[in-house]
């Protein structure tokens, strides 16, 4: 298994955990899980040289970060 595959699956599992935590109202831990998943998916985009994946995850990070700051 290639490194990118390990990172991709780790990111996917962490994102799913974040969704589950959101459903269980486990804030702010769900946000932290999403930040880790977003970072890892961005890394996958870098490894694949896929700008679309990088852009969507930068957008997700900005949206989540602004929401996190406004909630505090």
TrEMBL record:
GO terms for MF: methyltransferase activity
Name this polypeptide is given: Ubiquinone biosynthesis methyltransferase UbiE
Pfam families according to UniProt: DUF6552 (PF20189)
InterPro entries: DUF6552
Organism: Aliiroseovarius halocynthiae
Transmembrane portions of the chain: 31-48, 54-71
Single GO biological process annotation from the record: methylation
Keywords: Membrane, Methyltransferase, Transferase, Transmembrane, Transmembrane helix, Ubiquinone
Keyword Transferase: yes
UniProt keyword annotation of Metal-binding present: no
């Amino acid at each position: 298994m290639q490194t990118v595959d390990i990172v991709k699956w780790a990111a996917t599992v962490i994102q799913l955990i974040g969704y589950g935590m959101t459903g269980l109202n486990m804030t702010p831990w769900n946000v932290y899980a999403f930040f880790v998943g977003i970072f890892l998916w961005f890394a996958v985009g870098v490894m694949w040289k896929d700008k679309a994946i990088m852009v969507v995850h930068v957008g997700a990070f900005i949206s989540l970060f602004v929401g996190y700051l406004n909630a505090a």
